[in-house]
């Protein structure tokens, strides 16, 4: 398996991401290193990268190179964005990086930067119509798309660092400075004609470090039970609470707020002022936070060249397959358990009456139910639960992630731990508890019907007769399904508790 280093040299921070490229065009992050170098700081005065910032950047890139060498990485993709793109001393800076670090930086155009941000979002989120706002250190990108086609995009030549420098006027309070940023940003937005005619079904997607920081603070305030940031839904009210807290504090007090990166504390108010201006101007009441952006867009295009022409069709499916490949699961067995689970869900719909949304949850659970075996076989369902809640799945909401994890936990004996479930009461309803139990039993039977992992049982047909369910199995020609049926029958007690019916399997 190939390992690749991706260096993202931004106007505020620089980051190295090391990924392992799996077979079948998939990748997983195995290490990263981030430093705040503020390369774009103080550029507004004369357009030159400052010597102190250049020296710090060179030092950082050397560290990146050393870490890449420790992984024996031969392929390093390095790129620079707004600050270097606008710098009047761009050529001398690029030459110095090559001479001192042995790394050639590619300077992305504004259009390329917007393209990669879009690629990172569209291949990791299941949102049909979206408006992406990415606030970088030196520029701000807006990308409007519908049904996986970009309709319009705009790059504004200022970001969190440049806005902070621009309005750091002596004598103004922190609150007054954010008011100036809001006023300025709104004026710039008013010049974008297509922004005035958005489809009402469009969802607002926030990308970048500032959005992630706001998300962390909001989650801490609400005592949110999941660590995952990708696909987090931040309401306008929760945003306003955080903004109201951050914008009035001096720098020392901002640095003490949990969730704020110390390297971003001074520029976060300006970034949030831009966010506030944007939400007020567009009337969005919610923002979905994306953990994927520029770097991920480059990685998707690199490892899956087909995404250059067409985004991933099944975002969730691709993400799930990446996880089972990473954990060395038997893909044929996984697919068969998913198939049998879907058949049972449909065959038993007359009993459970669940809407289609629960079928998606069952698919996730059926795909990941065995991943915990790589940790330890005994009680592997508990390890599989943990992996499911922490796998940063794409195309999956946080609620779906939690419910799928609990279905995996329940598939061993049909039981749901009420104390453990109580931690997720913000995401799980009372009706979901019944669904978890029943879907867990369905998964248990589906797994049993492929106990030998040979695909012996090819299908099921269920008849509901009075107080009984007769489950007839379809078996491969000349195959012996004794093991599978015996193992599935062992779930009869859990089936009766969940569905209030006796189960017979033929």
Would you kindly provide a brief summary of this structure?
With 506 residues, this protein is of the alpha/beta class. It is built from 21 helices and 14 strands.
Would you spell out the secondary-structure blueprint of this structure?
Layout: E1 2-9, E2 13-22, E3 26-36, H1 51-70, E4 75-80, H2 82-86, H3 90-101, E5 106-107, H4 110-122, E6 129-135, E7 140-146, E8 149-156, H5 160-166, H6 174-189, E9 203-207, H7 209-222, E10 232-235, H8 236-246, H9 251-255, H10 268-282, E11 286-290, H11 294-303, H12 315-326, H13 331-347, H14 349-352, H15 357-368, H16 380-390, H17 398-410, H18 418-422, H19 430-448, E12 457-465, E13 468-475, H20 482-489, H21 492-499, E14 502-505
Parallel strand pairs: 1-4, 4-5, 6-9, 9-11, 13-14
Antiparallel strand pairs: 1-2, 2-3, 6-7, 7-8, 10-11, 12-13
Helix pairs in contact: 1-3, 4-11, 5-10, 6-10, 7-8, 8-10, 13-15, 13-19, 15-17, 15-19, 16-17, 17-19, 19-20, 19-21
What tags apply to this protein structure?
single chain; 506 residues; alpha/beta; six-stranded mixed sheet; 21 helices; elongated
Work out the helix count.
Answer: 21
Largest beta-sheet details: 6 strands, mixed
Q: Tell me the span between the first and last alpha carbons.
A: 45 Å
Strand order of the largest sheet: 8-7-6-9-11-10
Give an account of the 3D structure.
By secondary structure, the chain is α/β, with parallel strands linked by helices. The strands form three sheets. The chain has a six-stranded mixed β-sheet, with helices on both faces. A five-stranded mixed β-sheet has the order 3-2-1-4-5. Strands 12-13-14 form a three-stranded mixed β-sheet. Helix 6 crosses helix 10 and helix 13 runs antiparallel to helix 15. The longest helix has 20 residues. The mean pLDDT is 93.
């Amino acid at each position: 398996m190939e390992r690749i280093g991706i260096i993202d040299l931004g106007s505020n921070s620089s980051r190295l991401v090391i990924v392992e490229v799996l077979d079948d065009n998939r990748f997983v992050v195995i290490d990263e290193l981030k430093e705040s170098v503020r390369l774009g700081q103080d550029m507004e005065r004369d357009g030159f990268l400052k010597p102190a910032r250049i020296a710090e950047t060179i030092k950082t890139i050397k560290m990146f190179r050393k870490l890449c060498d420790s992984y024996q990485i031969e392929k390093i993709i390095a790129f620079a964005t707004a600050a270097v793109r606008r710098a009047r001393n761009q050529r001398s800076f690029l030459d110095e990086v090559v001479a001192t670090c042995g790394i050639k930086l590619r300077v992305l155009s504004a259009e390329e930067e917007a393209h990669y941000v879009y690629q990172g979002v569209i291949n990791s989120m299941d949102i049909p119509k979206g408006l992406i706002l990415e606030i970088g250190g030196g520029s701000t990108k807006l990308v409007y798309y519908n049904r996986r086609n970009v309709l319009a995009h705009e790059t504004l030549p200022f970001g969190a660092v440049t806005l902070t420098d621009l309005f750091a006027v002596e004598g103004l309070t922190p609150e007054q400075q954010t008011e100036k940023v809001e006023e300025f940003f709104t004026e710039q937005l008013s010049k974008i004609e297509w922004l005035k005619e958005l489809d009402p079904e469009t969802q607002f997607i926030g990308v970048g470090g500032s959005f992630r920081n706001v998300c962390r603070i909001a989650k801490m305030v609400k005592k949110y039970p999941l660590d995952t940031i990708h696909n987090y839904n931040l309401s306008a009210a929760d945003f306003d609470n955080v903004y109201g807290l951050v914008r009035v504090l001096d720098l020392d007090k901002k640095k003490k707020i949990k969730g704020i990166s110390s390297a971003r504390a001074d520029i976060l108010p300006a970034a949030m002022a831009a966010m506030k201006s944007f939400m007020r101007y567009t009337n969005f009441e919610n923002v979905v936070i994306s953990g994927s952006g520029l770097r991920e867009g480059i990685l998707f295009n690199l490892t899956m060249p087909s995404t250059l022409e067409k985004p991933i069709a099944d975002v969730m499916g691709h993400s799930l397959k990446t996880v089972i490949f990473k954990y060395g699961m038997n893909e044929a067995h996984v697919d068969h358990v998913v198939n049998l689970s879907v058949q049972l869900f449909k065959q038993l719909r007359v009993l459970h009456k669940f809407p289609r949304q629960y079928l998606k949850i069952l698919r996730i659970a059926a795909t990941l139910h065995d991943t915990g075996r790589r940790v330890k076989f005994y009680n592997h369902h508990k390890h599989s639960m943990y992996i499911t809640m922490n796998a940063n799945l794409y195309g999956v909401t946080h609620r779906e992630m939690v419910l799928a994890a609990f279905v995996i936990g329940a598939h061993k004996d049909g039981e749901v731990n009420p104390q453990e479930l109580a931690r997720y009461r913000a995401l799980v309803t009372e009706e979901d508890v019944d669904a978890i139990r029943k879907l867990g039993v369905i998964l248990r039977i589906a797994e049993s019907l492929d106990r030998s992992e040979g695909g012996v049982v090819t299908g099921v047909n269920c008849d509901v007769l009075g107080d009984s369910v007769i489950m007839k199995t379809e078996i491969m020609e000349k195959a012996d399904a004794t093991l599978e049926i015996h193992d599935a029958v062992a779930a009869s007690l859990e089936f009766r508790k969940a569905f209030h019916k006796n189960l017979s399997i033929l």
